[in-house]
UniProtKB/TrEMBL annotation:
Signal peptide: 1-22
Transmembrane helix keyword on record: yes
Spans traversing the lipid bilayer: 187-209
Name of protein: VPDSG-CTERM sorting domain-containing protein
Amino acid sequence: MKNTLKTLFAVAALGVASLANALSYNGEVELLDTDLDGDLFPGGGIFEANPVGGDSFYTFCLQYGVDISLPGTYDYSIQDKTGGLTANSNNAISKGTAILYTKFVFGSLFDPTDIANDNLAGMLQLAIWHLEGQGAFGAPGKDALGFNIFVDMVDDVAGYLDDYSGAAVKVLVLTDENGNNVQNQIIYVPDSGTTLALLGLGLAGLAVARRRR
């Protein structure tokens, strides 16, 4: 399975396919933990998602403090906002999160199959939680946001904390066998025009950050 995921990731990195290209908007998915989670912050991604009838892909948690049991099989629906009844539900993904996850899917952040990138995976999860308003997280073992290189990649993009209005990055809303909402995940859905625009914004923000230094 890991070799298959590595092949799929390489294809996505070339921009010619999506890891979710055959995925229905409703169905069943098996969710597995991986060895890449930053160690110091258990409970976050990277997670491996294996949807019935679709390609496997890597994902991250959108809601800090919402539980999920792994490995586990859940019903899913792909939506624009997070599901559930808690205070951090019914929220759209931020533009910054959409930029980072798109870059992750297309291979421009790091290789999610290489255990050497464990801390980077944890840092990206923390960046997503921050950008989704779940808390002020820095790098693993740090408190200051300035230590998070992924937040730094997007914090110069205009409106990076605003709601994402594109169609390429969505929420994988999960429910258990009793219909209870569990931890929502992020998913990439094909949309070439939006993808190119997001990648352009992300690269432009990174260029500004480099000039600033």
